[in-house]
Each structure stands twice: as C-alpha cells, then as structure tokens.
C-alpha cells in the first residue's frame, strides 16, 4: 500500500525526482545518524550519569557529547518545563526509527530508477544494512542483532502469510508432487552431499578444520541447503516468470522449511547424544518428517477452518474481520512452533483453507484491508530483514577461513545443480508437462539462501566452529543474493523464459475452465480411470454439500462458482465505471458492440423496457451534463489509486445507497458493456497485484469505455444510476430514484440476497487490480 | 513398452496406434474398459454409457455422451451421430485427450491444440453450422449450472450474454448498431481461449500399466 502510493508520485514527476531524491537522501542520512545515535544511546544511556561522575572511563569522552541530557539533569530546576527524557520511549522510538529508515530506503530506491533496474532491491537493502552497521560500529556501539525471536516471531510470519494467503491454488496443487520432491528430496540430498563432502575435505585439509566433526557439519549443511522464501520472493517479484516456475520455486522454498526443521532438530539431538547409527538416523528422519508435516498441516487447517467459521458470523461487525484472519494465522504459526513443528508449513494450509470461505463471507472493504495490510507488513518486514542482515554482518564475530568458505560456496552450487538435474530426470517420468532444460536452470539458479539460514545459524551451540560457520553462511547468502539475484534477470531475458501471462480472467475462460473440468472428469469416468480429476471433483462436491454450508453465511453457501465469479466481475465493472466517471466520456466510442448486435431482433422475450417520455429524457440529459462536469473535474485531480471517497460520502444514507447499487448492478448485468479504461501502473509487489477479472483489454492508453450510452433508450437509466452515485444529493437522488424504479424491468431479485451481496461492496472501490485467485480448486 | 504381451496381436493394434497415437498398453487397457462398458459386445450404445454411475453427478453428462457419438470427432468429414460405436471410434474420441510429450514439436503442439479446441467447439455447436450461436451458448451455461441447485434462469442468460458480448467485442470491435453478430466461429473460439493453453490442460492420464480396475494415483503415461 505504501509502495503503491509511492509509485504514483514517481511516475508523475521524473524531473522533480532528482531533487526529491536528494531530499530523500539527505533525510536518510539524518535518519541514519539518528538511528546510529539512538542505538548507541541504548548502551550509553544507562551509564551517562555514571560517566559524568567517573571521568576515568575511556569511552566517556565520546559519550558525553552524545548525552547532553546528563548536564540537564544535574541542574535540577524547580519546575522542569522542557525536559529531555528519552528513556521511557526508547524502545518504541528505536523500532519506529528503524522501520522509518527501511521505508525511506525503499522510497529512495524507486526514485532512482536506474539503479533499481539493475540491482534487485534486496541487494540494495543489504548494502544499506552494511552501511548502517558500519556506521554503528564506527560510533562504537552494539548494533541490534537479528535475534531468533525477532526474526521468527515478528519478521517472518507476515511475509509467509502474505505469500500463503495469495497462493495460486490451482498451479500449486497441480504441481504438488513436483514441489514436494524438490523440497524434500532435494534438501535432503543437498544436506547430505554437502555435509559429506565437507567433512571429507575437512579431514583432509588439516588441523585447522579438523575440529569440524561430522554432525556439526551436517547441521551446518542443513541450514545452508534450504532455499529461502523471503529471498526468492524478493528477487522474483520483480521478474515475472511464468506461473509454473514461480510456483515451483516458491513452493519448494516453503516446504523445505519443514525438512530443515526436521533435520535441524534431528541433528541437534544426535550431536548431543554422541554416537548414532544409520538405522536410527533414517528412522528419525522418517518419523520426524511424517509427524512434522502432517502435524503442521493439521494445525494450519484447524485454525483455517476456525477462522472461516468465525467469519461466518461477522456480518454485523465488519470492522474487525481482517483481524480474525491475521490472528488466526498467527496463532497457527505460534501453535506449530509450540509443538516444535514447522510454523511456516502451517501458515500455508491455514491461509489456503481459510481463504475461499472467508472471501465469501467478508465485506469488500475487509477484503481490501486484508490484502493491503498483508502486502504492507510483508513489504516492511522484508525490507527490515535485509537491512538487519547487513547490520548483523558487520556486527557479528567473524572467523574467516578461506578454504572452508570457498568450499561451501562451490559445493552449494554444485549440489543444487546436480540435485535439480537428477530430480528432474526422475520427475519428468511422472509429469505430463515436462520440465525443460530452461526450467531446470531457473529452478537451480533461483535457489537463493537468505535470512532464515542466518538466524538458524545463530542458534548453533557456541562451539569454536560457530563463528566459522556463521561466516560461511553469510558468505553463501551474500553470494546467492548478490550474484544470483543480480544476474537472474538478464538471464531470464536471455533464455527467453516464458513470462507470466497477463491473466485477464474473462468470463469465457472461466466458463471453459469449468466446462473442461467437468468434461475431463466425465471422460475419466468413461475410461474407468479414477484419476486427478475424479478426486478433485469428489472433493468439490463434498465441499459444496457439507463444508460450505457450515462455513459460509447465508445465501452464498449455495452459490455455484460460476455465478459468484460472474457477480464479482459485474461488481468490479460497475465500480470501475463509476470510478472513472464513464458517463463523462460519452462521445468517443471504441467498440460499438452492444447487446442488440448479439441478440436477435424481434420480440425481446420478456425483457420489455418501458420507454421514457421525451421530456423526461431531456431532463435527464440536462442533469447528466451538469453532473458530468463536476465528476470530470473532481476525478481529474485524483490518481488512479487514491481512494475515491468523495462520491460516496457518508451523508448518503446506507439504504438508499444500497438500492442504487442494486439498480445499477441489475442494469449492468443486462446491458453489459465494456468497463472504463484501465491505466497501467506497475505496483511494487508484482507477485500478487495482477489484473484479475480483466474482462477486456485495452491496447492503447487513455481509451474510453466502449460506450453504450449513446445509442439506445436503455442507456439513460444506467447513467442516471451512475449519476446517483456521483452526486451525494439525497433529495435529488430520491427523486431520480423514483423515476428509476418505474423504468426498471419488472424483475424482483431476492432482496435478502441482494442486501447481503451489496453489504459487501460498499464504497471504497480500492485498487483495480485485485489479485483474486481463482480458488477454483475448491469451488 | 511391455514387450512380452505385444507379440500376440501386433497388427490389430498397429493401425490404431498409428491413427491415435496410443501405446499398445494403453490400447489394451482401453479395450478392456470398452468390453466392460459394452457388456462384452463389439459396440457400445448410449445406454451403456448412461448407466455409468459416476457420470450421474456430472452436469454436462449429456454433452459428453453426445460428443462420444458425434461423427465429427472421427476426423472424417461426416456429420451427424452414431447410434452405436465400435472400439476404433471409441479410441478415436479418446485420442483427443492425449497430452503432448517432450518430443512434440511446436507445430505438432499447435495442431494438437487445434484438435482439442475443435472437439470442444463441436460439443457446443450442436447444429453443426460452424458457429456457436447465442442460444447454443446459453444452453452450455445452463447445463453447467444445472447440477448446482435452483438457478435463476435470468442469471444463466446473463452470463451467457456477457460471454458472448465479450467474444464479439474482442474479435469484432467495431460494429454498427444494426449489424448482427452471428455467432462464435472457430477462429474466434480459438482466440478467446488462447489463454487457457489447451494442449497442456485438456488431457487425462491414460493408464499404461496393466490394470483396468478402478485405481487412483500416479501412473506413467
């Protein structure tokens, strides 16, 4: 959300950008110093009084300059009017400062487009972190370190939840087998291969490395071999590779966390137990793994269902709906951690289970809120993680050992490549859509390591090898993020990897997707082969008959997916039309196709539209014209992504508003035309902000909506509906509304259903690009 | 391929293999299934297919059965529909659902795609006039929604209309008010479904291993 808003000014003012950049840079510098100072303060503040009284201390010289308040407190006045008491806001202050710094950095990068095109954001952030860390060190203070708790409990969950909630289910499920193989077998292979090799080399290499025993090696390797979702997301969000690759990489990075956790615990146990047999090891792995993955999934699913169930009853307290989603997910994460299961792995089922039901229940505003909040949190957290990574690098104790480090890096690469090639060979035997060499390359190359490895490294017991391990981990992370991260984009271009299609989920595609599903299920049944589709169909039916009834409120539970898709599409179009004031663009028409081109001439089959008298029409036109001016003026000053609150001011009574919506919607659905133009903006989190339900594409910019208005009688009522939206004049609108009602077709929708439907789409058109995944796996 | 079993009837299946591209194992399995469906006769009729219990829940069951008996799907230039079909025709229909392999060239993929789209098109175009008219499309949507409980017919019409409108707008953007969009032609159909990548989606896994019994799970194909 913040990033979106930031994009807008950037695109509009590139010349002003440079001065803005300078300003931002200046501000950033100031903040850096402030951050550094505050970090130092947290060490020094406790001793400031002490230093004053003890000039013998070595550091006091520098510190006294930074603590003027010590002077103040010495001369206590009767009534301290203006005092400087930093202590009691220290913690929140610092946290806010860090976050602000992170955000400003983000802002800065995007104002300087040249750099951000070449270097992915994550790299830049690490560099900034390094700088800040260096600065803090220069001041001589202890920098905040990426603690295990900080990272795993606060920084990581929103990122994973964001990715999990918006996970494209269909590709994920279709490729689940492949993902699992890569994640599980791949990680295991990596761990053992590297570990074994390293151990062998260490033994050979000599005394210095001789202290490395097999188990610590393996432990170390486990940490290193896991592909990191944060890094993968960060790098790949700027490159749009096709869905398949994206889901493979991302899915793998998520699932291998389970493996990592298992191996980690296992090896820890073993290293404490001393000796271990191979049988023990294998048994341990299997046991742990099955228990762990199933357990995590169950925990996640339970919380997901709870969340869905809760959302069924929230129709009267819409405001807190997003919180339920967040909290249930967080609880799932923490609960999984309680049982030493994989929190990351539990977040995914939680999000996936919750989503279809929650989306059916919550209001449109809540949906937007959830989306924005998740994006915002994950964006900020990601930035913070990378910065902290840089800072911790500078701060941490290092033990550089050329052989070890270089060996690590090389072995990592080699084992990844080998693993991918080998596994693909096996997998391709089972897949319908084979993975080509290009795909394999990207999968191998996209295996970035990141902060998870780093913070796990901190957990290693403090044996003498720890520092060396840490250094090696950091080097690998840096190498993958910088080298691989920077080169992956040109490589993707070079190899002409298939990019993500601009998915304009049209209604035809939706119809045919469903049709195809049924067709394939049917053919499978004819062939007597209970395959993929059969079970999917069974699950869908089970879902429809039982689960939905429990988890979705009201009428929606029986709504088939096609219809809900259609309704959603309608609403979006309606809102888009209103937003852009389509009535303002009557004259230019691009496509003149309207219903009458399709329908056969002749009796309209029960769709008699009562005609309006001429005088009324003239009146209507006059009002239209007057309002068009207003909306045009108003709308011109708004950018696409500002929330258009004005037309929907609160003085419009709720009920009236809803009624207008009903009418407009009904009209929309029967005189369906093309929605208004859609500007192309490039949102930051490209992974998820894709145009969805984009019914019609526009090749040229600034295209006006294909108007239907000019042609036939039905149009004025529609535009009246729009005008009603645009002008908050209750009296006027009620008069118009009366007219509307007479003009309406004599079809009475189910009021209750409409209310329910409408209560979900009140105001706030929000962003046009909704990432509403089809969720068609569970229909 | 299972070398041991093919010795017995190489010729019988050879031309079927050539025409449809199935492997011997797959043909054998399908033959077993065919015999099962037909009650050990040489042909199956609509009643045989109707009686498959699993199909009862399928909303487009009628269309599927019609498609199997449709002469157009036999890749000969006949039209109309059979009353009964033999094993070869059955195989022919099933061959539309084969997936592409790693060795399929882009041209072959394109041809495969066209073939599958053609199959779909024929399913919609019931009167075989080369276009899918609004009525036919409406019927499609209605059928799709038929098993989902009581659906307001207006909604089904609305959806079909919207879809039709979309096809028209994308393919023939400029239309005078009195022109009439006859129906979706095959080219337009291809156009609007371009995003779906039919060649990779429209397939089922044909069993390669010797089993004709109901069994789910992974199988090589």
Automatic annotation (TrEMBL), chain A:
Q: Has UniProt tagged this entry with the keyword Iron?
A: no
Domain Sodium/hydrogen exchanger regulatory region intervals: 590-677
Tell me the membrane topology, using the record's own terms. Multi-pass membrane protein
Q: Name one GO molecular function term.
A: potassium:proton antiporter activity
Biased amino acid composition, Acidic residues: 770-779
One Gene Ontology cellular component term attached to this UniProt record is:
basolateral plasma membrane
Composition-biased stretches, type Basic and acidic residues, lie in 736-757
Quick one: a GO biological-process term for this protein? sodium ion import across plasma membrane
Similarity section = Belongs to the monovalent cation:proton antiporter 1 (CPA1) transporter (TC 2.A.36) family.
Protein name as annotated = Sodium/hydrogen exchanger
Organism equals Platichthys flesus
């Amino acid at each position: 959300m913040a990033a979106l808003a930031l994009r807008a000014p950037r695109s509009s003012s590139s010349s002003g950008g440079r001065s803005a950049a300078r300003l931002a840079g200046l501000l950033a510098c100031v903040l850096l110093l402030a951050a550094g100072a505050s970090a130092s303060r947290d060490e020094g503040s406790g001793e400031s009084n002490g230093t004053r009284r003890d000039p013998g201390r070595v550091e006091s010289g520098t510190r006294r300059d930074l603590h003027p308040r010590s002077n103040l407190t010495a001369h206590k006045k009767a009534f301290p009017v203006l005092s400087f008491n930093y202590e009691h806001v220290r913690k929140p202050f610092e946290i806010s400062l860090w976050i602000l710094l992170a955000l400003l950095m983000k802002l800065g990068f995007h104002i300087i487009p040249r750099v951000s095109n070449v270097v992915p954001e994550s790299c830049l952030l690490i560099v900034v972190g390094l700088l800040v860390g260096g600065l803090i060190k220069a001041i001589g203070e202890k920098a905040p370190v990426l603690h295990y708790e900080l990272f795993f409990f606060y920084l990581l969950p929103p990122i994973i939840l964001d990715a999990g909630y918006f996970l494209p289910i269909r590709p994920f499920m279709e490729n689940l087998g492949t993902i699992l193989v890569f994640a599980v077998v791949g990680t295991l292979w990596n761990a053992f291969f590297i570990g074994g090799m390293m151990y062998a080399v260490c033994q050979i290499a000599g005394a210095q490395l001789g202290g490395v025993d097999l188990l610590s090696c393996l432990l170390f390797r486990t940490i290193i071999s896991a592909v990191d979702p944060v890094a993968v997301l960060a790098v790949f969000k700027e490159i749009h590779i096709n869905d398949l690759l994206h889901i493979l990489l991302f899915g793998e990075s998520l699932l291998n966390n389970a493996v990592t956790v298992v191996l980690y615990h296992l090896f820890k146990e073993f290293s404490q137990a001393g000796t271990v047999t191979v049988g023990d090891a294998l048994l341990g792995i299997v046991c742990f793994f099955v228990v762990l993955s199933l357990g995590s999934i169950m925990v996640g699913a339970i919380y997901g269902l709870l969340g869905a169930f809760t959302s069924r009853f929230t129709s009267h307290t819409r405001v807190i709906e997003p919180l339920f989603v967040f909290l249930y997910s967080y609880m799932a994460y923490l609960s999984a951690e309680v049982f030493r299961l994989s929190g990351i792995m539990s977040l995914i089922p939680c999000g996936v289970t919750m989503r279809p039901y929650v989306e059916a229940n919550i209001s449109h505003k809540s949906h937007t809120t959830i989306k924005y909040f998740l994006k915002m949190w994950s964006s900020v957290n990601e930035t913070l993680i990378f910065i902290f990574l840089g800072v911790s690098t500078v701060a941490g104790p290092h033990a550089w050992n050329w052989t070890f480090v270089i060996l690590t890096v090389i072995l990592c690469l080699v084992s990844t490549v080998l693993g991918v090639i080998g596994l693909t060979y096996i997998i391709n035997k089972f897949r319908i859509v084979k993975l080509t060499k290009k795909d394999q390359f990207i999968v191998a190359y996209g295996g970035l390591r990141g902060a998870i490895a780093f913070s796990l490294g901190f957990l290693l017991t403090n044996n003498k090898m720890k520092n060396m391990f840490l250094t090696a981990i950091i080097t690998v992370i840096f190498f993958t993020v910088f080298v691989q991260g920077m080169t992956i984009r040109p490589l993707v271009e070079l190899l002409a990897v298939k990019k993500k299609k601009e998915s304009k989920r049209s209604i035809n595609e939706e119809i045919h997707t469903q049709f195809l599903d049924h067709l394939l299920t049917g053919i499978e049944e004819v062939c007597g082969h209970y395959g993929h589709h059969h079970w999917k169909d069974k699950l869908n039916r089970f879902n429809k008959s039982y689960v939905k009834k429990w988890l979705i409120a009201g009428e929606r539970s029986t709504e088939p997916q096609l219809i809900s898709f259609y309704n959603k599409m309608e609403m979006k179009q309606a809102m888009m039309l209103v937003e852009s004031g389509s009535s303002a663009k009557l004259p230019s028409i691009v496509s003149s196709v309207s219903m009458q081109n399709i329908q056969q001439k002749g009796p309209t089959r029960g769709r008699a539209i009562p005609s309006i008298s001429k005088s009324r029409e003239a009146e209507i036109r006059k009002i239209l014209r007057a309002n068009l001016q207003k909306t045009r003026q108003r709308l011109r000053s708004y950018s696409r992504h500002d929330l258009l609150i004005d037309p929907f001011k609160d003085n419009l009574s709720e009920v009236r508003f809803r009624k207008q919506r009903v009418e407009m919607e009904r009209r929309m659905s029967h005189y369906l035309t093309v929605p208004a133009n859609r500007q192309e903006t490039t949102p930051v989190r490209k992974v998820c902000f894709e145009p969805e339900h984009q019914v019609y594409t526009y090749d040229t910019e600034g295209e006006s909506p294909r108007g239907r208005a000019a042609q036939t009688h039905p149009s004025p009522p529609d535009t009246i509906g729009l005008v009603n939206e645009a002008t908050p004049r209750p009296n006027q609108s009620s008069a118009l509304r009366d007219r509307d009602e007479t003009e309406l077709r004599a079809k009475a929708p189910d009021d209750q259903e409409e209310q329910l439907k409408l209560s979900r789409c009140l105001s706030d058109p929000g962003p046009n690009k909704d990432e509403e995944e089809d969720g068609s796996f569970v229909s | 391929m299972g070398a041991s079993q093919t010795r017995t009837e190489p010729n019988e299946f050879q031309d079927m293999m050539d025409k449809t591209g199935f492997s011997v194992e797959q043909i054998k399995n399908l033959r077993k299934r065919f015999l099962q469906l037909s009650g050990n006769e040489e042909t199956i009729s609509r009643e045989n297919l109707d009686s498959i219990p699993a199909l009862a829940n399928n909303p487009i069951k009628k269309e599927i059965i019609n498609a199997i008996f449709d002469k157009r799907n036999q890749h000969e230039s006949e039209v109309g529909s059979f009353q009964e079909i033999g094993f070869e025709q059955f195989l022919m229909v099933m061959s539309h659902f084969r997936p592409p392999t790693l060795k399929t060239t882009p041209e072959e993929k394109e041809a495969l795609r066209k073939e599958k789209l053609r199959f779909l098109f024929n399913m919609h175009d019931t009167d075989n006039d080369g276009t899918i008219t609004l009525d036919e499309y409406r019927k499609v949507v209605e059928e799709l929604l038929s098993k989902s409980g009581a659906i307001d017919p207006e909604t089904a019409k609305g959806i079909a209309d919207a879809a039709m409108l979309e096809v028209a707008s994308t393919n023939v953007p400029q239309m005078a008010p009195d022109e009439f969009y006859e129906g979706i032609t095959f080219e337009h159909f291809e156009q609007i479904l371009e995003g779906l990548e039919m060649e990779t989606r429209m397939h089922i896994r044909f069993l390669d291993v010797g089993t004709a019994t109901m069994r789910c799970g992974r199988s090589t194909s």
